[in-house]
Amino acid sequence: MIIMSAQPIQVSPRPGTSHHAELSPQAETTLAMFAHLSGLLGIVGPLVVFLVLQEKSQFARKQALEAINFHITVILAVPVGIAFVFAGNLFGSYQPITVIVAAALIFPIVAATNAGTGQFYRYPLAIRFIKI
Predict the structure, then answer these.
(1) Which keywords does UniProt give here (predicted)?
(2) pLDDT, block means (10 residues), the chain with 132 residues
(3) Alpha carbon distance 33, 96 (integer Å)
């Protein structure tokens, strides 16, 4: 008769290795660029990069967090800009919403370019809602 134990088998990693595979510098910069550029389509892309790379790449994770904070700021600024557009109809000014849209398109491209060269990019005027 064979007696089975209910305890799980512990497998220890090989010496010198970690539980998480390390990413190459090229992969880190590519994922950081993806985090910034995917923000052009919404906040989901940077959020996925942030959540998936919890332990694998600090650089890509921090860049994804910057993108998330910037896009949260843009999401909150759009209604304010729209309110200024309605108020601007009285005065003939559409500049606030134009500036918000331009920033939402230009800054992620600049950030992706910097991330591609391995430089940490911090979005100007972004409110840091989430901090690590």
Answers:
(1) Membrane, Transmembrane, Transmembrane helix
(2) 43 44 84 93 92 87 94 92 74 75 94 94 92 82
(3) 28
The confidence score (pLDDT) of residue 80 equals 84
**Is the overall model pTM greater than 0.85, yes or no?**
no
Output the CA angle 78-74-114, nearest 5 degrees. 145
111 class by beta-carbon count within 10 Å (0-12 exposed, 13-18 middle, 19+ buried)? buried
- Nearest partner of 115 among 55, 70, 51, judged by Cα: 70
Q: Where are the domains of the chain?
A: 25-117
